[in-house]
């Protein structure tokens, strides 16, 4: 018998991708998938891509979830903490929501509102020393999708003293699945197709998470909704702190990482290349006019930005190779 796994919030996009990955995982045995409004429906009625996975979505009951060895919480922001608090300490939990990412309660109140549930071990293995912390943890807070993209591009530059932390500018485009599955007029295909639109300009909720993980002290972030289902492309720029080749810094930082790839010089990331995989593609240069360091990063917001990252963290928590059940390679569109 394998490691028993339950997924709360299985009807959403991240939950569906998580189920797909778990169905092919050699060590995790999916024993429960729960939802709210769609509880009682066969799984393949909600996720047709999972036809053949014989499950019925159950109500999100902490008692049912507690029967598993590992619980993934793929719930809307603000809903994970109450469920997690009712799970036994022996049950390992990976939260794909934001409830436990931030250390600073004031930052939580400012960007999310409501009571701060406290910080868990932050789930980005590629940060220095973080693999060991995740492996020792029973509660892990998965990264945000934008945050994962930007942190992987920026953190090594600040850590190496190559970039000034006080002046970081990011423009990043994301597919519509990043907004969740709830029906919203501005996400209708007729509204999104043929259009690019910024949103939450100057106040996106991932800003404090990015600053916390990278050491950035000044961050201007403009997110853009792109007419595609999934994927993130982020352009990160910062003033140099010393004369440096940013590619060298990134190459040294990720030399042994299985899922972060610095592309050959001159080849730039694009979202389609990461679709369906757990990889992040990076490229870097120095702007010839301004002298700013530029890093472009691409990943699948439902893969390395959510479900794939969650499985990677869970692998570490159970002493498995972090690549178990995951692929670095994308799929053909």
UniProtKB/TrEMBL annotation:
* One of the protein's GO biological processes: L-arginine biosynthetic process
MF term (GO), any: NAD binding
For the keyword Magnesium, the answer is no
Q: Which CDD domains match?
A: AGPR_1_actinobacAGPR_like, AGPR_1_C
Please name the Pfam families in this protein's record.
Semialdhyde_dh, Semialdhyde_dhC_1
E.C. numbers: 1.2.1.38
| Keyword set includes Acyltransferase | no
The UniProt record lists the Semialdehyde dehydrogenase NAD-binding domain at: 4-135
Instruction: Provide the Gene Ontology terms for cellular component.
Output: cytoplasm
What is the originating organism of this protein?
Answer: Micromonospora craterilacus
Report the locations given in the UniProt record.
Answer: Cytoplasm
Q: Protein name, please?
A: N-acetyl-gamma-glutamyl-phosphate reductase
Instruction: Give the domain of life.
Output: Bacteria
Protein purpose:
Catalyzes the NADPH-dependent reduction of N-acetyl-5-glutamyl phosphate to yield N-acetyl-L-glutamate 5-semialdehyde.
């Amino acid at each position: 018998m394998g490691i028993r796994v339950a997924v709360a919030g299985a009807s959403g996009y991240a939950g569906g991708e998580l189920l797909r990955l778990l169905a092919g995982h050699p060590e995790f045995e999916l024993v429960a998938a729960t939802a709210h409004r769609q509880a009682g429906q066969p799984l393949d009625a909600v996720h047709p891509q999972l036809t053949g996975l014989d499950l019925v979505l159950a109500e999100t009951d902490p008692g049912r979830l507690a029967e598993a060895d590992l619980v993934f919480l793929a719930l809307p922001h603000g809903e994970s903490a109450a469920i997690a608090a009712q799970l036994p300490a022996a049950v390992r939990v990976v939260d794909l929501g934001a409830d436990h990412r931030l250390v600073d309660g004031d930052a939580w109140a400012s960007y999310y509102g409501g009571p701060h549930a406290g910080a868990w071990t932050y789930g980005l293995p590629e940060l220095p020393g973080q693999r060991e912390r995740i492996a020792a943890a029973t509660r892990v807070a998965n990264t945000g999708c934008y945050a994962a993209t930007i942190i992987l591009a920026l953190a090594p530059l600040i850590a190496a003293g190559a970039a000034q932390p006080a002046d970081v500018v990011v423009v990043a485009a994301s597919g519509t699945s990043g907004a969740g599955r709830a029906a919203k007029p501005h996400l209708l295909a007729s509204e999104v197709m043929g259009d690019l639109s910024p949103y939450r300009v100057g106040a996106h909720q991932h800003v404090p998470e990015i600053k916390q993980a990278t050491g950035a002290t000044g961050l201007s972030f403009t997110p853009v909704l792109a007419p595609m289902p999934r994927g993130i492309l982020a352009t990160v720029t910062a003033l140099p702190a010393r004369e440096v080749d940013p590619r060298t810094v990134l190459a040294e930082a990720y030399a042994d990482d299985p899922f972060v790839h610095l592309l050959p010089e001159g080849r730039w990331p694009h979202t389609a290349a990461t679709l369906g995989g757990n990889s992040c593609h990076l490229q870097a240069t120095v702007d010839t006019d301004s002298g700013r360091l530029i890093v472009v990063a691409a990943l699948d917001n439902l893969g390395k930005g959510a479900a794939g990252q969650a499985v990677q963290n869970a692998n570490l928590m159970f002493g498995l190779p972090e690549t178990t059940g995951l692929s670095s390679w994308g799929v053909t569109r």
